[in-house]
# Entry
Amino acid sequence: MERLKNSGFYKLKFLVTPEEFKGILELFEQKEAQFSLSNAARTTHDLNQVHEAYTAYYQYFTGQEKLQYHPHFVYSITMNLDDKISGFFIKNEGISFPYRGAWAEDELPSIMISLPKGFQLHLEDEKGKYYVYEDIREHLPLTHAFYEEVGKYIKKHTKLLRISVGSSTDDVQELKPSVRVSRDAAAELANSWVFKTYSLVLNMA
# Structure
């Protein structure tokens, strides 16, 4: 089996409405996934709490006015699909964009879901203990297949985000981040304080 120099990650960035996010959570519910905060206690949240956290993050960016408190959305997700504990990571990932010759103070929102490409094997030889990475598709095929399933679901309900940045026709440039957004989320984002503050324009049909 081929060994990997480092793990790396499969990654997908997206933004959907809280109502649409329920569909993604249902996929995880079917696999009896557990969502844990990345704190020392690894506090577990049920799906309602996860949905509430996503809603708070989403509404911060799609609201008419900027709130004082910036909510975050960060979870590790554990499952038992291959007779071994496996997991995803899901977190908010801001999208930087230029504004008047510098980077804007604020960022655009997205959620990134990721899965390690490598499966860590602990080995030992005459030199001592060490570990290597091998392809996760070989060790955790059902976990990788589920990641693909989630990705296909998200891609089915979203399109790539395209935005114009610039205060005049001379310096307008199009942003093409690798972020997928649903039609409804794009419409709400286009009417948000972020777009109004920085005169952003949505370029999606």
